[in-house]
Specification:
Elements: H1 5-21, E1 24-29, H2 35-46, E2 50-54, H3 57-66, E3 80-85, H4 91-102, E4 107-113, E5 116-119, H5 120-127, H6 132-175
Length: about 180
């Protein structure tokens, strides 16, 4: 059933609000996915505070233009869905990319990051970045490494002194 003008305006308004709230978004071609696969994707993304939805291209085009984002018009000639990330900026790209590995029908076309359009390659780069927790762990490891080395160097002198005293004691006990 055709949507009324008011319904279309409400959809555009909702899309604009989601662009305002989202840290990032990924635009995909979902053609070839079954309904159950689309629901599985929606559930999987939902675990990471990512909203996934199918929208009419013309309404998505209006919402993107209303936000003042310049984008690649060539992607608008295929069925589109968009994933809005409300938490981690990398979650939509990472989630879509992981799902696409098992479902060849899902194709990443581009995305919106920091209120600017980015191409497919840049979305894949974002998807392959380590998570925030992994980066924190690497930083902590980098900070702890010099301290561990210093502890080992300082304790080596004590171990050496203990070994010398132990050998001296053993030598004294055999000579007596």
């Amino acid at each position: 059933m055709a949507k009324t003008r008011k319904e279309k305006e409400n959809i555009v308004t909702r899309l604009v609000e989601q662009f305002d709230q989202a840290n990032s978004a990924v635009i995909v071609n979902y053609k070839g996915l079954t309904v159950s696969e689309t629901e599985d994707l929606r559930k999987e993304l939902g675990k990471n505070q990512v909203n996934f939805g199918v929208t009419k291209n013309s309404l998505l085009r209006v919402a993107i233009k209303e936000k003042g984002i310049e984008f690649d018009e060539s992607i608008m000639d295929q069925p589109l869905a968009i994933a809005f990330g409300l938490g981690d900026e990398m979650a939509p790209a990472r989630g879509i990319n992981n799902f696409a590995k098992g479902h060849e029908a899902l194709e990443i076309l581009g995305g919106i990051f920091e209120k600017k359009y980015i191409g497919r390659e840049q979305v894949l780069v974002l998807a392959n970045l380590p998570s925030r927790e992994e980066l924190y762990a690497k930083i902590v490891g980098s900070l702890a490494s010099p301290m561990t080395g210093m502890v080992n160097v300082l304790s080596a002198n004590l171990r050496g002194l203990i070994n010398v005293l132990s050998q001296y004691k053993d030598q004294r006990s055999t000579n007596v």
